[in-house]
Amino acid sequence: MKILLTETGKTKDPSIRKLVQEYDSRINHYLGFSIKTIPDLKNTRNLSPEQVKQREAEQILRDIEPSDHVILLDENGKQRSSVDFADHLQNLMNRGLKQLIFVIGGAYGFDESVYSRANERISLSKMTFSHQMVRVIFTEQLYRAFTILRNEPYHHQ
Predict the structure, then answer these.
(1) CATH class of the domain at 2-149
(2) Helix (H/G/I), strand (E/B), else coil: 114
(3) Is 43 helix (H, G, I), strand (E, B) or coil?
């Protein structure tokens, strides 16, 4: 199985980019992991939030195959502990999925077309984080999940 993280907008802060790259490298020791960054939309001043979400949705959905399992990182998604997330990830891998796609939306969230395509939604917290910080938190949790599954000494209970 391959895992793809699709994110909307570039990470401008070099310290955040460095942390994400560090976890990207670590995750790739376990399986194929890649990050696809959808460029920021241009000339959005005259667009409504709904129009922005629609344009982002076109970019998000463009490369998703019918066989892909899509999980949105969404504030209204299901919350899981790190161990529960690792178990869920193992269950998805056991199903023989070709590709698992996690999606971080833009500032306004997701268009209804993206919600309709998604297989599930997860929330990282009841708190709200910037989209930049979500990248770090999620990649760290994905790495943590693999260390839990391999009984490596990263996660402590």
Answers:
(1) alpha beta
(2) helix
(3) coil
Residue ranges covered by each domain of the chain? 2-149
Could you give the CA distance from residue 52 to residue 46 in angstroms, rounded to a whole number?
10
Length of the chain: 157
The span from the CA of 75 to the CA of 121, in Å, is 9
Q: What is the pLDDT of residues 27-63, one digit of tens each?
A: 999 999 999 999 888 888 889 999 999 999 999 999 9
- Output phi, psi for 50, to 5 deg: -65, -40
d(CA 156, CA 115): 34
Give the pTM.
0.95
d(CA 131, CA 144): 20
